[in-house]
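It would be a great kindness if you could assist me with a short task in structural biology. I am sending you one protein, given as its amino acid sequence and as whole-number tokens for its backbone shapes. I would ask you to consider whether the tokens describe a fold that such a sequence might reasonably adopt. The full record is reproduced below for your convenience.
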Amino acid sequence: MDLVLLTEEIVKSLVVDKDGVSVKEFPTEDENTMLIQVMVNSDDIGRVIGREGRTANAVRTLVQASSALNDNKYIKIDIDKF
């Protein structure tokens, strides 16, 4: 499964404004690293990050585990609001 699509599906399941979610992949200097940027509506940022960052860490863990099964890249996920 495409890791960007997986991240987008997970984040969209957490937020109220599903149309306000933008997930994009950006190139990195290291070929074994993938950077995924998640942008959400400012009202939904708390839902995505969670208390003490637990939800964000869970999303990162799920995507990293999927990467380990497929192409074994290190995944960095940046979560921000607009």
